[in-house]
Amino acid sequence: MPVRLVLTAAVLVLAGCAPAPPKVNAPLAPRAASATEASAIARVEAAGRAIYRQDQAAQRARDALAAQGIAIPLPDVGGWIITELPQGTRVSLFVEDADAVAHVQADVLLPPPGKGLPQVTTAPARAPDAAEAAMYRARQTALANADELCGAAFGTVILPGAEQRWDVYLFPESDRAKVIPLGPLLRFDVSADGTRLVSSEAYSKDCISMADNDAELYVRLENRTQGELPVPMDVFLSLSYPKPIMLATGGHLWLVENGRIKPKGP
């Protein structure tokens, strides 16, 4: 199924005395978020923070495995499945064998902050549980339907979605120092068993990046109607690359900073 375009992002860097952001579709008048918007914003912020936590956990697990000389497979034949346990966050490296059957190559248990170092178990004597297997299938289903990866290294995060389905997020990872990748940013809604793509959307299909020494980022979002809000990946970016991001949606200007969304006047 083709990815549905939600926005096209034109990135303008604001620094020092740069001119004010251009108007988009209507005058950008400051106003407080409505009660309905505030409720939706809380859900968007929670999802964005969850994406960030999983991405950070995967990076910590990657470092722990690299310290033991364990190679990370290419994304299309292996990846991370993350499970929250009472004793901490378990980050499992799944790898496919020659018959395309996934198994757990390593588990990395990340204790709560201040509770110890990562615990690495290679070739654990366990099979993936039902939830892990469904998450991995959902990941592979999303990858099979992703056309806009720009040939770059990319990360994946799988979160519980609507009606017991899975939301799979794909986003580029920076492979160069001091470069912030801003697209493509994709979300896939996948069935509960992980085998069927229900829908997909591209928050940004363009291959966009910026230098991290730029002071502030303004993203003009086309094809968003009046009243639409920032999305979880906006929150994720604001946490991953701590910069204020301003998003123009319809006649509204939003500031996304440190994982929080709030209205902002022009």
UniProtKB/TrEMBL annotation:
Signal sequence, renumbered to the chain: 1-20
Protein origin, superkingdom? Bacteria
Query: What's in the keyword line of the UniProt record?
Result: Signal
What is the protein name for this chain?
Answer: Lipoprotein
| The species this protein was found in | Dokdonella fugitiva
